[in-house]
Amino acid sequence: MELSKRLQTVAAAVTPGHRIADVGTDHGYVPIYLVKNGLCPSACAMDVNKGPLARAAEHIGQEGLSDKIATRLSDGLAGLAPDETDTVVIAGMGGELICRILKNAPEFLEAGMEFILQPQSEWFKVRHLLHDAGYHIAGEWFLKEDGKYYVVIKALPSPAGQQESYPDEFHYAYGSCLLWEKNPVLLEYLQKEQQKKKSILARMAQPEEEAKGNIPAHITETEQQSRNSQENPENTSGKSRKDPEQNAMKRLQRQKQLEEEIRAIGQYLRETV
Predict the structure, then answer these.
(1) Angle subtended at Cα 88 by Cα 83 and Cα 93, rounded to the nearest 5 degrees
(2) pTM of this prediction?
(3) Cβ within 8 Å of residue 77, ≥6 positions away
(4) Pairing of the two strands 114-119 and 135-145
(5) Looking at domain 5-172, does it have CATH number 3.40.50.150?
């Protein structure tokens, strides 16, 4: 069995000799790889859905590892006790879901075990949660596979009396470890992110130009009148007057946020590339 580049990176982050719990195991590939290669003595493959768990059990049986890898139907970590594992692996889920799983199982964070996390999105939320829980981000890996970018985070309990934190949101967004080591794949990703954010900012500014009279030629007078009637309905209740103001304020806040993100990425790239 050959792991994908993403799952190889996840498996390599696990400390050899640790028992693992693979949350959202899907096909069970990570625990199979680790146990089969003698990197883990035992494992628990867990999933909230019966279908993926059945596939994992089938694969485990085919490899002759049913005596070393247990399968367990579980919503997150609900079906496991902290003393049953040394490392928790959660890979291939959104950052918000990973945070929810960890928040719903505080006993695992309190137990001071190792976490290997591979969030598909909202990486900053995962890093914030780990720091808030008193964890140290010991290492990160950033890779590209089939045109997609992935981050893998290894977290351990912070030494007694030490609370790790990053200086700003830029480091939480992209990972202080990765920024410090000038990860080449991250540099490529940041260059694309900078261009994407610039395009979004340009599109956000376009309606303001139209409001000042810079209306594209393809918009007819009738279409513009229709737009104006939608933007300024006859209903002049307090709520109707307030909503455009709130939307405008939110829009302005988002524009300022994008400008700051573009500035931060640009500064880092200038100092690095």
Answers:
(1) 145
(2) 0.85
(3) 21, 23, 46, 88, 101, 102, 104, 105, 108
(4) unpaired
(5) yes
3-state secondary structure of 35: helix
pLDDT at position 210, please?
54
Please check whether residue 79 is in contact with residue 46, taking contact to mean a CB–CB distance below 8 angstroms: yes
Indicate the SS3 state at residue 57: helix
In tens, the pLDDT along 168-207 reads 999 999 999 999 999 999 999 999 999 999 999 999 888 6
Assigned token pair, 67 = 């005596």
> What SS3 class is residue 23?
strand
Q: Which residues pair with 139 in a beta bridge?
A: 154
Helix axes 29-36, 50-62, angle to 10 degrees: 20
Q: Where, residue-wise, is CATH 3.40.50.150 in the chain?
A: 5-172
User: pLDDT tens digits, residue range 77-120?
Assistant: 999 999 999 999 999 999 999 999 999 999 999 999 999 999 99
Q: Give how far the C-alpha of residue 55 lies from the chain's centroid of Cα atoms, to the nearest Å.
A: 26
Distance CA 159, CA 135 (A): 9
Backbone angles phi, psi at 28, to 5 degrees: 80, 20
The beta strands (E) that lie in 31-68 are given as 43-47
- Closest Cα partner for 118 from 88, 151, 87, 149? 151
Instruction: Answer yes or no: are the C-beta atoms of 89 and 46 closer than 8 Å.
Output: no
